[in-house]
Amino acid sequence: MRVSKKVINLDSGVGRPLVCCWDECDRLGLTIYQHVSCEHDVRWNCEEQDRLRIQRCGQTAHLNYVFCSERHRAYFVNAKGRNALESLARTGRAHGNLPVGMRQRYG
User: Fold this and answer.
1) pTM for the whole thing?
2) What is the pLDDT of residues 52-87, one digit of tens each?
3) CB-based contacts of 73, cutoff 8 Å, min separation 6
């Protein structure tokens, strides 16, 4: 049974699969491990901001990132915004830390 699919970039004309957005990972990104980043004030309506941004500059107000696993997605999300500031205060670095509930070893 298939749970997820590769994310394909159709803008290139050829339709190549996208690679994981975490650091130097070269595995393919999957549809179930996506993160959408709002590039506007979160108090504003997303659909309205997308419409306005497309009119003004030809792109939406949101960025889509794909990852190969939930772990790589969690690393990425934890390295942004308030999470990054908390990681900096706690460990001295913002990049490469997992969120609190995921800090255990596998197996």
Assistant:
1) 0.76
2) 999 999 888 898 999 999 999 999 988 888 888 888
3) 22, 33, 34, 35, 65, 67
